[in-house]
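dumping this here so i dont lose it
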């Protein structure tokens, strides 16, 4: 089962439970009215006044492939909050390999349900209301306020900022904000003074009409999108939302005593529960086998890496040179592709912090393995790098791109590409390129600091 869309939201106002349930039922009756439900579209509902968990699960067959599309809305009352979770999943129905569709844009009927729940809960993120509409920054004060919000330590959702000054039309629209309800804040800078105020807050050009900026929370590196539509932007933000979803552990509903006249109905219900439980056990068994093989692979890799580092302690000169470390990495780190320029630059660098370079290459190799295995979406690879790799930078400066692009470029499969993501290792730099078509990670350069705005 693959989660292709998901979002969650929580409010301390537990009195909204019934209103939220009514909203889900209205959506369900509009999408799948009782009179049109068939065996090919099963609807499962868990609902009881005394049950802290409310859940609706709808399964729709996909006629184009051996799979079903599942939509699950869950409402949980805990000690401190009311928690709402919505997920869209792809579930294989036959023993067949299917194309992996990592992300789905929510269809209008699903976006409307999300917008209604977000509007009902009225939750604030770093004192800003989470909503399905665009925030407008029109003047200097708005620009300063938006910059302060972007830097708020308590902000948990991404902030999408587009400068619309001088554009015939905005790339992000009301439809974009509607699709990203509960997943990201969307803001438009509508004047030069608001843009200047925002950039002055940082003392640098963070936003411009040339790109759309995504300000990630918790100190993650901002990202700039230059495309002419918002498709890739929306996909990346949905992928981040899916990646942040918690595993829901739901206790079974409490069973009440059967009335004498309802014994047959109770037996039928228990039988259905057993059937569903057996199906769940089978799915868990398959998942356990897959995870077991994955853990075995990770354990063997960890043992190999540990052996290498023990050898380093025994022999103080082991992999001391960067050139030796890269040659060793090329033989042993099978999830990385070492471009010939990476080998040449390492050999000519004469740097002597090879162990540190090798250690970072090991971590990059592990992330590349997870990427190729499908543990996370390709468009959030840099986010995982930022979490796992110390001194990682997702890109290079604008001046480096404009003035020294040839320093960062490599020839890859008949094209010139720029290796922007890099890892700082003391005097050394590791630059790599992510081929999003094949999910290969190509190590492009290992050597001294390349030219940028701080060098001539």
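and the seq i came up w/
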């Amino acid at each position: 089962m693959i989660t292709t869309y998901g979002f969650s939201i929580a409010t301390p106002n537990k009195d909204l439970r019934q209103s939220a349930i009514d909203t889900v039922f209205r959506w369900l009756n509009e999408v799948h009215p009782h009179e049109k439900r068939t065996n090919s579209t099963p609807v499962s509902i868990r609902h009881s006044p005394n049950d802290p968990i409310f859940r609706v699960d709808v399964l729709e067959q996909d006629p184009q492939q051996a799979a079903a599309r599942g939509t699950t809305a869950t409402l949980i009352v805990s000690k401190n909050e009311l928690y709402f979770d919505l997920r869209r999943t792809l579930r294989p129905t036959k023993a067949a390999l299917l194309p992996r569709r990592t992300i789905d844009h929510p269809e209008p009927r699903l976006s409307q349900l999300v917008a209604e729940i977000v509007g009902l809960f009225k939750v604030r993120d770093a004192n800003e209301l989470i909503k399905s509409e665009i925030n407008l920054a029109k003047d200097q004060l708005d620009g300063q306020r938006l910059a302060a919000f972007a830097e708020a330590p308590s902000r948990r959702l991404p902030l999408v900022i587009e400068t619309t000054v001088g554009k015939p039309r905005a790339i992000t629209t009301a439809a974009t904000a509607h699709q990203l309800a509960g997943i990201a804040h969307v803001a438009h800078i509508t004047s030069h003074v608001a843009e200047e105020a925002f950039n002055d807050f940082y003392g640098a050009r963070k936003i411009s009409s040339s790109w759309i900026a995504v300000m990630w929370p918790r100190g993650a590196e901002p990202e700039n999108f230059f495309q002419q539509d918002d498709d890739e932007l929306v996909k990346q933000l949905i992928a981040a939302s899916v990646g942040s979803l918690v595993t829901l552990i739901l206790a079974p509903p409490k069973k009440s005593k059967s009335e004498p006249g309802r014994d047959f109905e109770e037996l039928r219900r228990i039988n259905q529960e057993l059937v569903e439980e057996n199906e769940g056990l089978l799915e868990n068994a398959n998942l356990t086998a897959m995870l077991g093989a994955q853990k075995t692979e990770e354990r063997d890799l960890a043992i190999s890496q540990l052996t290498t580092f023990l050898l380093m302690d025994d022999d103080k000169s082991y992999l001391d040179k960067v050139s030796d470390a890269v040659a060793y990495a090329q033989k042993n780190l099978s999830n990385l592709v070492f471009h010939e320029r990476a080998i040449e630059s390492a050999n000519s660098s004469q740097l002597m912090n090879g162990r540190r370079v090798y250690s970072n290459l090991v971590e990059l190799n592990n992330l590349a393995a997870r990427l190729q295995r499908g543990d996370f979406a390709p468009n959030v690879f840099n986010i995982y790098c930022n979490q796992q790799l110390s001194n990682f930078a997702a890109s290079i400066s604008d001046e480096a791109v404009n003035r020294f692009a040839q320093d960062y470029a490599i020839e890859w499969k008949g094209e010139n590409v720029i290796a922007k993501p890099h890892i700082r290792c003391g005097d050394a730099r590791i630059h790599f390129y992510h081929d999003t078509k094949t999910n290969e990670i190509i190590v492009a350069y290992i050597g001294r600091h390349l030219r940028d705005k701080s060098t001539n």
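Confidence is low (pLDDT under 50) at residues 286-291.
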